[in-house]
Queue: 2 jobs
Job 1
Amino acid sequence: MSNPVYLALDLPRLEAAKALATRVKSHIGGIKLGMEFFYAHGHHGVHEIAHVGLPIFLDLKLHDIPNTVAAAMQSIHVLEPAIVTVHASGGRAMMEDAKAAAGDKTKVVAVTMLTSLDERDLQRTGINGSAHDQVLRLAELAEASGLDGIVCSGQEVGAVHKQWKKGFFVVPGLRPAGSATGDQKRVVTPRQARDDGASVLVIGRPISRADDPLAAARQIEATL
């Protein structure tokens, strides 16, 4: 992948989202469409953004019983996404069925621990131990389930890369040096994540909410 940056394009208006993607397309490698975008615009919205000419990452975080997740995966097959997310906490059977139902050209990656959470949040949900250990446990489960890779923070990607040499690693919650962290708790810079083994760098607000999104995308690309 020549440019690992995927722009998180979760704008409420389809025309504005497409205009932003078109504006910065020369300095990103793909487009991530999350639940906010998909619930608002559905298949039509994905088709419209696909016209920009970049790979599409559907960050839908599927999490349900295996049969339901497999059916959901089949329903988005026609969109030909490059990447789709499921939740690792859905278990091995769910992940296996998700992968089996995905298209041959679609990478299925498991969300391990959201970058908005920290160890205190884990404890409140009944999970003891460190965020680092939890991510490694779920990465091991995802690999055993036949998935292509995982989603994790930049703080864990180096350790996961050592554990899973051929994995495909998506790192969100990235912030260029000096940027505000917002609601993200476990953040690193794009360059650090890339050096530690990230395959895809998901970047949203530092580009989409910049005064000059094109300049922001260009500056981030230049650091990689």
Note: The CA atoms of residues 9 and 33 lie 6 Å apart.
Job 2
Amino acid sequence: MRKQVVVRFFDETEGAFRYREINSSGDYIHGDRDGALIGDIYLRKAAMPDNHPIPL
């Protein structure tokens, strides 16, 4: 099985960039009730010291 998930920058914390899953309308999906497959993704800043993702 293959699923495609689209995420968008949501927030920046002291140690991570946070991305949240969005639906086909571009709205954030907040949890299981809304049909989230993976929910939030946190990319640790310490793991990417020279290559931070650009929040769009």
Note: The beta strands are 6-12, 16-22, 40-44.
